[in-house]
UniProtKB/TrEMBL annotation:
Keywords: Signal
Protein name per Swiss-Prot or TrEMBL: Blr3518 protein
Organism superkingdom: Bacteria
Matching InterPro entries: DsrEFH-like
Organism lineage string: Bacteria, Pseudomonadati, Pseudomonadota, Alphaproteobacteria, Hyphomicrobiales
Cleavable signal peptide: 1-26
Length: 154
């Protein structure tokens, strides 16, 4: 008889614990926050520029296919800035398509590199419309890394 009561108490405790767990608010999951990727382009190489765009498209497609949000930013400095320049980007048409159709992908130009080009060329080269500017491209990448963004240099 004592054994039966103990079993019932154990069963009741288990049921109570299960009910408590089921009604407790769940801890926020990682999936509720968007994935965040920063891509670096610092080389004046059209193949690397295309690779950056390929990676952005593939990562965006991957997470969208899983129902997850993803934020992607491309940071260009040094020779990679040519990717974002209106008068010489070797990937201009594809980049324009990104700006129109992929709102989760943004592009940032290094202000220091822009100023260096302005001195060298006698004018500030025009950026493709929709490109943001940061003062220091590398510092922008560091800031993103400190906010737990994943930094990749394809």
């Amino acid at each position: 008889m004592i054994r039966g009561r103990a079993s019932r108490r154990g069963l009741l405790r288990s049921l109570f614990a299960a009910a408590f767990i089921m009604t407790s608010p769940a801890a926020p999951s990682r999936a509720t926050e968007p994935h965040r990727l920063a891509l670096q382009i610092s080389d004046d190489d059209p193949a690397k520029m295309r690779a950056v765009l390929d990676v952005a498209a593939n990562v965006s497609r991957h997470y969208s296919g899983q129902g997850d949000d993803v934020e992607i930013v491309v940071v260009a400095f040094n020779g990679g800035l040519d990717m974002l320049l209106d008068d010489r980007s070797p990937v201009k048409e594809r980049l324009l398509n990104f700006l129109k159709s992929m709102p989760n992908v943004s592009f940032i130009a290094c202000g220091n590199t822009l100023e260096t080009l302005a001195v060298k060329e006698g004018r500030r080269p025009p950026l493709i419309e929709g490109i943001s500017v940061t003062r220091v491209g590398v510092a922008a990448l560091m800031d993103l890394a400190e906010k737990n963004w994943t930094i990749v240099r394809p």
